[in-house]
Amino acid sequence: MTTYILRRLLTVIPTLLGVLLAVFLMVRLAPGDPAQLLAGEFATPETLADIRQRFGLDQPWYTQLGLYTLNVFRGDLGESVRTRKPVTYELSQYFPNTLRLTLGAMLVALLIGIPAGIIAAIRPGTIFDLLAMLGALIGVSMPVFWFGLMAILIFSVQLGWFPVAGTGTLRHLILPAITLGIGTAAILARMTRSAMLEVLSQDYIRTARAKGVAGRVVIFKHALRNALIPVVTIAGLQFGGLLEGAVITETVFAWPGIGQLLVGSILARDYPVVQGAVLLIAVAFILINLIVDLLYGAIDPRIRYD
């Protein structure tokens, strides 16, 4: 397994280089001059030239790319054009909030999606199955911003149970986590149901039942464990999607996360922060996929890493 992990980590380097190149080129193709945005509409040419020289914007794009790549491997992501603070500092202020929100949303998705899928699978065609799949359909189809606004209206404004926006306590986290996680819960419910139905139709499940094995043991020890491989795969992909797709939820709930930082930096043409934020998200996504691959072996001991 150690060899497998090292081999996977080595593939991170070309992947990150590709991400870095793509983001570097895209942010520079966007219209707008960061020096002009920073200095103001009535800045003198001398001021603009000084800002461009300070941030290396006066050099050819390939020179900027080469210098930035070297600095990244040294652990230096540059300096924010807007705040004049290191990008690593900016990311350290916002990323923990996004990570906390994403973990909360994933917990909501797992606690709702997997039990709903199991119940729907063991009672197919019943009212439980119908309600679970109807709820999953609604969860997938419902816009995140609409659900978030309705949650604020009902549970914050009318009932007063939770704060309207901001961060700081567990009560601040509940509504954003539910809003962000409800769509993933719907996807996990459908995947769990499908995987469980396939496993429950296998011969070894019928054999276990014929031998008199308790129903709970058949469901949770034999069926669920073998059905978890595709569910874990989808959960890993969805976790990465939640991490990078929390922008709308963070905006609705004024949650100070990496999404808000990224949007503000794009509008201000703050190239170093945009590049650093996307690079951080890419690293997190790669590590999540590696963890998912390692979980396969824990779920199914027959899986070997060659």
Query: Strand fraction band?
Result: under 5%
Round the Cα radius of gyration to an integer and report it. Answer: 24 Å
Mean pLDDT across every amino acid position? 80
Main sheet: strands, sense, barrel: none
State the total count of DSSP E strands.
0
Gist?
By secondary structure, the protein is an all-alpha fold. It has 14 helices and no strands. α13 (258-267) packs antiparallel against α14 (271-299).
Structure description:
- The chain is an all-alpha fold.
- The chain has 2 domains: 16-73, no CATH class; 94-299, Orthogonal Bundle (MetI-like fold).
- The protein is 77% helix and 0% strand.
- The protein contains 14 helices and no strands.
- The chain has helices at 2-10, 12-29, 34-39, 45-54, 61-73, 87-122, 127-141, 144-158, 170-200, 203-210, 215-244, 247-252, 258-267, 271-299.
- Helix 6 crosses helix 9, helix 7 packs across helix 9 and helix 9 crosses helix 11.
- The longest helix is centred in the middle third of the chain and has 36 residues, at 87-122.
- The chain is flat, with a radius of gyration of 24 Å.
- The model has no long low-confidence stretch (mean pLDDT 80).
Q: Topology, pairings included?
A:
Layout: H1 2-10, H2 12-29, H3 34-39, H4 45-54, H5 61-73, H6 87-122, H7 127-141, H8 144-158, H9 170-200, H10 203-210, H11 215-244, H12 247-252, H13 258-267, H14 271-299
Helix pairs in contact: 2-14, 6-7, 6-9, 6-11, 6-14, 7-9, 8-9, 9-11, 11-14, 13-14
